Amino acid sequence: MDAVSSVSEVSVSEASVFGASVSGAGEPAVAGEVVYLARTADKPYVYTYEPPDGVAKSNLVAEAHTVPIFDMRPIAGGLGLDVQGFALVEAATSVADFYDEGAVEATYYPEAERLVKQATGAARVVVFDRTIRRREHGVEDRAPGTPRQPVTRIHGDYTEVSGPQRVRDLMGAEAEVLLQRRFAIVNVWRPIRGPLHDAPLAVCDAGSLAEGDLVGQDLIYRDRTGEIYGLTYNPAHRWYYAPAMRADEALLLKCFDSLKDGRARFMPHTSFADPNAPADMLPRESIELRTLAFFDE
Q1: Please, what is the Cα angle at 80 between 194 and 248, to 5 degrees?
Q2: Distance in angstroms (rounded) separating the CA atoms of residues 129 and 118
Q3: Ramachandran category for residue 138: left, alpha or beta (phi over 0 → left; psi -120 to 50 → alpha)
Q4: Which of the listed residues 70, 147, 208, 290 has the most CB atoms within 10 Å of its CB?
Q5: Quick one: pLDDT band at residue 1, thresholds 50, 70, 90?
Q6: Which residues form the domain of 74?
Q7: Does the pLDDT at position 99 exceed 90?
Q8: Stretch 66-80: mean pLDDT, rounded?
Q9: Which pTM value belongs to this model?
């Protein structure tokens, strides 16, 4: 395991939305452990249910590294979806109870669609998925009868293959026409209760990724096989988080972009244990919406 011995104190200039990537050096940071994917000969896979007899549920090989995770708040105004692949925004909501499915669909979905439109300039935004995660210590994510848990491995939600496939899965007869123009998949992530200290989200600056760092891995469901990205270790990766996120804040995460012009297209992320978190912190509760953003360009 790699240890962080020091953090540079060189100052950081803010980057514009379409400017250079922010280096992270000089901003406050914590030493956090994140779980990468080790390189193996076989394509990685995970079953989301109990696999057939004699088949391992997963062949992933974890590789933990301790890295500096920088506080994004001092440079939040210079972060953008098209450069770093993430943005921290103030986003008050009218939803009082995120466990009320009707209120989430009737009120929060339109709020999120407006938020993504404003942040991206998309002509049309469609919410297509939501996940509430509620921490219960000692249980595994996707275990029967338990709420979804924070994801503890670095991952990217969509790949070069599964991004367009999601449009085909969801948009029916419109799909092939929509795929002729630019589209993106943007995750809207927020705490249900704040300030959030337990298992905050660490996000990797997309500008720090090198070719070959992202590795496709199969996510096997009973009725289909999806594909997500795992991330292999590179010491050049720059990690950020928003300490003590409030319930009136949201992180926007770009999970896919079809445009190949040098802007951020994929942005790996993971939960991690903040060493500065108070001992009496509340267990994490968070909600994430995935959206399809369609552009006229």
Answers
A1: 20
A2: 20
A3: left
A4: 70
A5: very low
A6: 29-294
A7: yes
A8: 97
A9: 0.88
Q: Is residue 224 part of a domain?
A: yes
At residue 26, the pLDDT reads 58
Tokens (6 digits) for 282: 């509340």
Q: Any idea what the CATH number is for the domain that residue 129 is in?
A: 2.60.120
Report, as an integer, the average pLDDT of 234-259. Answer: 98
Domain count for the chain, please give it.
Answer: 1
Residue 1: inside a domain: no
Q: What is the mean pLDDT of residues 173-187?
A: 97
- The per-residue pLDDT for 145 is 77
Is 4 a member of any domain? no
Alpha-carbon gap, residue 17 to 151, rounded angstroms: 28
- 107: which residues sit within 8 A by CB, 6+ positions away? 93, 94, 95
Q: What is the mean pLDDT of residues 148-177?
A: 96
Under the banding of pLDDT at 50, 70 and 90, the label for residue 184 is very high
Residue 13 in any domain: the answer is no
